[in-house]
Amino acid sequence: MNFTPIDNKGLVEGFCIIKTIDRKTSTKGDSYLDITLGDSDGEINAKLWRYVPEIHGEYTANEIVKVRGLISEYNGNDQLRIERIRHTEPSDDVKPEDFVKSADYSGEDMFNELIKIADSFNDSDLKAIVTAILNDNRLQILYWPAAFKLHRAVRGGLLLHTLSIVRLAQSVCKI
Prior knowledge:
alpha+beta
C-alpha cells in the first residue's frame, strides 16, 4: 500500500479504494467497520473502531476514500487502525485507474486493434455484428477485468484476454 508517513510514530495517510466493507459488532457491543483497502500496489485490512455513521459517514465498496491511521501487525499481517476517514472531493484530483491494477497496454490501443481486425472481416454481416457488439460495450470492455482473482484480474483484463485470443486465432488460421 502506498501511504504517506505523517509522523515518526507510525501515523500514515493516503487515498485507497474500498474493496470490501462490513459493519460488525465488537465483543463490547460497539459497531466497527472491517474494511479491505487497496491501491495499485496491494491491499490491507483496516478497522474503524467505535463506528458511528453520523460522525464517520457511510461508505460502500468500490469507493475511493482518504484515510489516516496506524499500521500494526495482527496475526502476522499488517492492519490499519483507522483514526480518520472521509469521502474524496473533486479537489483531491484522484482517478480510479490509479487505485486498481491495470493491463500493461493502453485500453484504447487494444480496443482500436480489435475494431481494426473486425473491419478487416470479409463477411459484412459478421463485421457489422462484431463492431456493434464492441462499440455498444466499449466502456465495459475498456475497464472490466477478465476474472475477479487470478486470470487477468486487472483493469482492462477482459480486453487484453479478448485481444490475446483473437491474435491466437489469427496465428492458427495462418498455419
